[in-house]
Structures are given as structure tokens and as C-alpha cells.
Amino acid sequence: MRATYFLQRLSQLLIVIFCVTFGCSLLLQLIPVSPAEILLPVGSPEERALLTKEIGLDRGPIGYYVKWLSEFVRGDFGDIYYSGGREAVSSRLVVAFPRSLWLMLYTQIVALAAAIALGVWSAYRVGRRADKVISNVLFVFSSIPGFAIALVLVLIIGVRLQWLPTLDYQPYSAGVWEHFKHMIMPVLSLSVGLIASYTRLLRADMIATLREDYITMAASKGLSDRRILWRHAFRPSSVTLFTSAALNMGGLIGGAIVIETIFATYGVGFEVFAAISGRQYIALQSLVGLISIFYVVFNVIVDFAVGFVDPRTRDRRVNK
Amino acid sequence: MRHLFKGGRRKVAGVMAIALVASLSQVAPSNAAEKKSGGTLTVGIFDSFPGYCMADNLANSSLMAGRTVYETWVEQRSDGKMVPYVLSKVENSADFKSWKLTVRDGIQFHDGTKVNGDALVTNLQALRGALTLLGKAPSPGTAGGFTANIITVTKVSDMSVQVDLHRAQTDYLETLYASGRFFVRAPSQILGGAKCSTTPIGTGPFKLVSTKLNELVVAKNPNYWREDADGTRLPYLDGITFTFLVETASRVSGIKSKSLDVAMFTSAGEVKQIRNLQKNKNMTVIESPEEYYPSIWLNNRIAPFNSKNARVAVSHAIDRVDYSKVRNRDYTSPAKSIVGPANIMYNEKGFLQFDLEKAKAAAAAYKVEAGKDLEFSFPYTAGSTESLANVTQIQKYMTAAGIKMNLLPLTTAEIIQRAFPQQFQAMALLLMEGTGTAFIAPFITSDLSGGNQAHLLRKTPLAILYGILNLSAFTDTVSDELIYAAKAEPNLAKRTALYAKATQQIQSEARLTTIAYQKYALAYRTNVKGVGELGLTAGGKRKLMTNFGIDFTGVYKSGK
At CA A106, angle to CA A170 and CA A113, rounded to 5? Predict the structure, then answer.
């Protein structure tokens, strides 16, 4: 049964990736001018013809896609074209990808940790002052965009107090504290909004779960509140939370462009922006392909995780 | 206790004084020796790094960064005069048609190869497109237009090269400098194929560590050829990181929070932030002169601006004083000529100043001539609030004069891509700059080869470069000939007069117009020292601050 479910999800994953990447490659074919002219604006006709052939644009939409895909799966994500040469997209990703990955990971850890604590507490104290305060504060935070939080943090923590650097990314090799020092403000900026939405999701699910009969039964058996909350209520209530987190992961990989720009962390989001503004369509196609893979893979992982947390969901899907 | 203190006071004081003198005598010389060496800087800039090959134009603040890796054959002194730099000597024929350039001995590129006559020939031939035609180097890009007056480049000795020109040019060294853009590139970079744009190899005080679209990291070049007046080998700094920070707020907060040591700004939309930093006592803010002339290019080749009435109407409609006040907070001066007062071409005659009645009359005349209202589209950078605010302000002036101006939101890449085949009806772009004409004439001349029918690019697709820089796409034989004549004129007074006539001709025909003169600012923290202190090898100093910022060769950091 599990193998069938796994294969089913895997095939869905491949279909989604195919649709996204093929759609992107079709868009490239639909551009009213030759992509070679855009990639080599000062190149000679011979150079452009050579590039057209090299990229596979002379093979038609299917031929081009097959060529791109065969290179993509081998880790060749194409090139970024300059007037005097080119640079492999992969060489840029080697720098940008770890930045985005750390940023996403820390953001999710912070957001989930805070949201779980607040959501469970809020549901437990539903209708009381603590719940109202948490709900109202989070409502305010959810309405403030991340970039505004980033600018406030920069002004207060960076400029006024000078506690943390306002710019740049430092890898672990530069020192663990250096690394974290540069990540705190970007992570906070991204996670505040997520904390608000995650907490609200978890709170709502927890409240519903706490009204279930088996919770009443557990309470009547004399189990402690802590045990009921964490052991019996949290697990089934966390399905929506983790699904939402997975959906955000793909978005954070390529969509943190504003925060990346404010803090000059320059990850994958910036590479996407640069590819769009520089009309580097081949690079863009590969970047979109990669982001879509992440998006889908994270969702599949969460699907499996949810199935593990709540086997009923897995069985329901398979029985369909 | 009292006794002990009283009795020992003199002894203690004496010992302390001796210790203090001893410590000072030991520390002071070592401080003096160390204070200018070592340390790194982080610099926030507002331009990205599109590449380092001939056609990749580093703009303003990224040019400042590029010039830490690269040097130029000649340098411009603060008085505007061009002096040899990587060259040791420059000689010209009496008719200014032949220039002999001699390379300074003892300089090597970052790859260890020697800078010599061969390297100079490779650089010049690459810039003019000769190596592109042979398939040896990438496209020269717009440099092919700038250098189109060259007929031949001949190596005359191991260290000397002769450049022969089609038309006499007294200011050829300005062309060789190209406002700091014609770098001394290593032949290995130029001929290096796919890495020309991504691997800068120069002779500069710093060498490449890494580069990306948004960052350039450079480290001290241990074999740099220059020393300071005390004989210390330059540069002082160990390295510099230039970071592209598109958001002005990021540069401001970066330098205030000490994440940056230096940050550069432009008066085009960053005046508020420059003024904010000027008030900060932990900061030194220096400004360039107003030697940058953003223009409104009116496409003379297509409607509606193939009509003089249309051009005159637009030129008269712009309230330059109001624009400087509203958009630039009076930080810049309203234009009175297409170039600024410091430029040799400056001339107020013929410049069509704001006059709403004349604008309306010209618009009405256009309507009679064309049979329809005067209407045109004007691109701006999509997503840029500054760009939108600027064009909206201009649109307001047009509306007041009865002219319809449609705003066209496009990406920067689209604007540049469509600008140089001259596809826009009108557009705003800062191209012209400086005190001379090397970075002005190419934009207002119709044929940069000077009519040379035998020029090497003439029968190739690259011949487009002769006129591609003239964004207004006009052919005016009167102004062309005046500019050629001025360039050939050795007498400064006569040359100035000829240029002034050319300017008057262009202005009276309203080929293009200018709104305000622009400048740049650079802020650095108080522990950054030595800015503008290092002289040139030929004597004198560079300009303290330009559109390409400052020179980092003699900069150091105190209190590291």
C-alpha cells in the first residue's frame, strides 16, 4: 500500500515538474524576437546562429525542451550570457543556493517553534486574556509586510543600537557567530508574518481537536493537560500547519527577493530577479525548474510526514 | 598610608613619566609604520557588475570598483588635463593625426605578464573591433564607435605604439581615457574567450578574488607598481568588497550601522539621503562637481520629433527651475545648455529655456504641420518610484503645454536594448559628462568614423557603431563639421569657440535637451583615511570625486 502511495506521489511530482518546465520552455519559444538576439545584443549574426544551435532553439519546441531537460537532469543549468563570454548558472547557484537554504531553514524553524508554542498556548487558553492578546498581536503582525519589519529592525537594531550588521551574508566558515549575526534580522523579518499565520492555523485546529470526544475521554481518565495537549491534541492538529509550512518552503527559496535585497544576502530570489531583468531566459528557465522541484519535493515530503503523523490521511488518499 | 603615599608620590610620578616616555618612544614609530597598511573596506554601491569585457559598460559606482582592478593608459588631473599613467610618454605629430604612445616599463598584469607594446596594440585593436573581425575577441560594443577615428595601430618598438587617426584630434588622449572607461586589460583576458566578461585581469592596485552580478571582491596586488612618497608599496588596504545595494536605504543604514565603510550615492533620486548623511558627524561626505548632464533625447528620425516644431515645443515646455526644486530639492542646478558650465562645449545661446507660451505655440504649429496633436511616448524604469516620479513631473509640464506624453513602463534591460537601436520617440538618459568632449561628442555626432569610407568596420554589421550612440538619431553636417574642426584645432580659444558654435547649432535645432546637471556623492566613515591624498605619477592629483567615485590606491583604515 505504501509503495503504491509513494509511486503515485512520485508520478504526480514528475507531472508537475514537466508541466512547469515545459511551460517555461514554451514561453521562450513565444518571445516575438529571437532569444539569441536578446542574449547576444551586440553579437554578429554568425555568433547568434551558433548560439541558436547550441541552445537547441533550432530544433523546435519539443527538440529544444528535450535538449534542455537532458542537460538539466545532468546538472547543466545553462549559461548566463555576457557580451564577452558566459558563466554557468550552476556556478552562481553554488553561491546563492546555500544562502537561500539557510535563510529558509532558519525562518521555518523560528516560525514553527514560535507558532507551535503560541498556537498551543492560545488554544489552551481560548477566550481568555492570553489568547486575546496573542491573537490581536499576531493579527497586527500578519498585516505588516516583511520588508516593513525588516526596515524597522534595521533602523532600531542595526543603526540605533548597532547590535547586528545590517548587510551581507557570512557562511559558517567565517565563524558560527558571524554566520548567525548576519542571519538574525533577515530571519526575523521573514518569520514574523509566518508566525502569525502558522499560529492562527494551529490555534484553530487545536481548538477543534480539543473539542473532540477522545480528548474529553483522555481528560476524564485523569491525564495531565500537558500530556493531552502535546500527545493527543497537537499531533492531529499539526497537519494543516506542516502542509502550510511546506508550501511556504518553495516560496521562501525563490521568493525572499525583497528581504534578500534589503539585507544584501542575495540568494536564489536575487538570481531569479537578475535573470528576469537581464533577460537571461535560459537561466530563468532552469531557476524556475529548480524552484518548482523544491516546491513539489517539499510538499511530497510533508505529505509523507503528515501520513506518518496522522495515518488516516494517507489511507484516505490511497483508498480514493 | 598617608606617609607612604606622600613619600612615594614623586618617585611614582617619575617612574610613570619614564614609563610613558619609554612606551611612547616604542609605540609611536610602529604606529606610524603600520597605520597606513592593512585592513579591508566594504563599499556599498548603486550599480551592478554586468561584466568586464570591452562591451560591458561598468557604470558610475561599479566603474569605481572596476578601477581598483584596472588602470587606464592615461589619467585625468584635477585641472582636467590628461597625463600619462600606465603610459610613460605620449607624443603627437604636428597635425595631431599621429600619436606615439610609450608604455611605462616595469608594470605587469595580475597574471604576471608584462605590460608592453603588444599589450597596448591588443587593447586598442580590441576596442576598435579589429580583433572581433578576426574572430579573436568578443565584440567591442560601443567602444567601437568611440575609437572609430583610428585608421591604424602599429607597434613601433617593444614598448611603443603608433596610432594614426583619420581626422586630426588634439584631444585624442581624452578618447584613450574615455572618462576612465578604457581599461588596460591583459591580453589573456581579451583573447581568453568565454571568460572575458567574468575574469577581469588588469594592472591595478587590487586583483580579483571573486565577482558576481552584485559583488566584486578584490585583494591587494602584491606586485603593484606604485609606491607612496615614503617608498611604501601601494596599496595600503588588504582588500575591498564592493556590494551592489540597489536600495538607497540599505546603503544609508549600512554605513550608519558600520556594516559599510564607504557608500556612494547619486543626485538622481538620492538627494534626501545624501543630505541626511551630511549631517552625521561620524561621516565625511564628498561630492563630485556638477559635470554630468542627463539629457532628454528626442528621436529626430521618427515622428513626432522629426519635426522641429515638436522638438521646440518639448524643449520650451520643461520648467527646469521647478524640476530642480521639486525633484532634486535644489541640490542640482537647472540646465542652461545641453552641457554644464565646466564643459568646453558650454554655450547658453540657442538653448530653449522654459517658456510656456512658446511651447504652446510650437505645439500648435506642429498640429498644423502634422494634422494631429503632439503626442509621444516616454519610457521609464518599471517598479522604480524615482523613475516614475521623474517622468510624471515631466509629463506635468507637457500637459501644461498641451502636449500628450504617454508613460511607457519597461525594465532597465528593455530600455537599454531599445535605446541604442534608437527605437524610442524620446527618452531620458545620462550619457554626457565631463569637462572635455570625449564623452560628449560620440552622442551628438552622426558618424564617428568622420566619414572614413575605408574604415575597417565600414562594410561589416559593426558599422552601426558609427552612429548608434547618437540617441537623438540626427544627422547635422553643420554641427558634425564644427565638432571635427574643433577637435583638430590646437588653439584652445579657437577650439572653445568652435565647440560653442556646435552647441549653439544643436540647441537651436532642439536635437536634444537637458533638464538639470547631476552630481555624485560618496560618504565614508571617519576611520577611512587617505581619500584624495595620493598624487599621480606625472604630478598633480586626480579629481577627488567623480561619477566613478574615488581612487582607493592611497586609502587606508585607521583603528583597525
Answer: 150
A320 assigned to some structural domain? no
* Structural domain boundaries, residue A146: 94-309
Strands B375-381 and B404-410: parallel
Predicted pLDDT of residue A269: 87
Residue type, A30: L
Q: Cα-flanking dihedrals φ and ψ of residue B275, to 5°?
A: -65, -40
Report residue A151 as a C-alpha cell: 526596515
Amino acid identity, residue A111? Answer: A
Which of A91, A121, A150 represents a domain boundary (last residue)?
A: A91
Q: With an 8 Å Cβ cutoff, is B246 touching chain A?
A: yes
Asked if B256 is an interface residue toward chain A (Cβ–Cβ < 8 A), one would say: yes
Q: What is the mean pLDDT of chain A?
A: 86
What residues contact B153, with CB distance under 8 A and at least 6 apart?
B121, B124, B125, B128, B130, B161, B162, B163, B164
Q: Is A168 found in the same domain as A31?
A: no
Q: What is the pLDDT of residues A32-88, one digit of tens each?
A: 777 777 777 666 677 788 888 888 888 888 898 999 999 998 989 988 887 777 888
**Among candidate residues A73, A91, A109, the one where a domain is terminated:** A91
A86 contacts B257? CB cut-off 8 A:
no
The one-letter amino acid at B76:
Q
Contact A85 B213 (CB under 8 A): no
Alpha carbons B556 and B415: distance in angstroms, whole number: 39
For residues B373 and B460, which has the higher predicted lDDT (pLDDT)?
B373
Are A82 and A200 part of one and the same domain?
Answer: no
Distance to chain B for A284, nearest Cα, Å: 15
CATH number, domain of A253, equals 1.10.3720.10
Q: Is residue A108 part of a domain?
A: yes
Q: pLDDT tens-digit profile of A96-142?
A: 999 999 999 999 999 999 999 999 999 999 889 988 999 899 888 88
Query: How far is it, in rounded angstroms, from Cα A253 to Cα A189?
Result: 15
A82 and A221 inside one domain: no
Handedness of CA B338, B344, B349, B350 (dihedral sign): negative
Residue A160 to chain B, least CA–CA distance (Å):
8
- pLDDT by residue (tens digit) across A129-173? 988 999 899 888 888 888 899 999 999 999 989 899 999 899 999
β-sheet with B520-525: strand ranges across = B206-212, B215-220, B239-244, B40-45, B262-266, B520-525, B283-287
Handedness of CA B27, B29, B32, B34 (dihedral sign): negative
Q: Which domains does chain B have, with CATH numbers?
A: 20-70+204-288+519-560 (3.40.190.10), 72-186 (3.40.190.10), 292-514 (3.10.105.10)
* Contact across the interface for B56 and A82, Cβ inside 8 Å: yes
pLDDT tens by residue, B180-220 = 999 999 999 999 887 898 999 999 999 999 998 889 999 99
Give the integer Cα–Cα distance in Å for B268 and B47: 13
Model confidence pLDDT, tens digit, residues A260-284: 888 988 889 888 888 887 778 888 8
Interchain contact B123–A (C-beta under 8 A): no
> Mean pLDDT throughout B8-14?
46
Helical packing angle, A89-124 and A268-277, nearest 10°: 130
Look at A277 and B258 and tell me if their CB atoms are within 8 Å.
no
Query: How crowded is the C-beta side of B542, counted as CA atoms within 13 Å?
Result: 27
Interchain pair B214, A270: CB under 8 A: yes
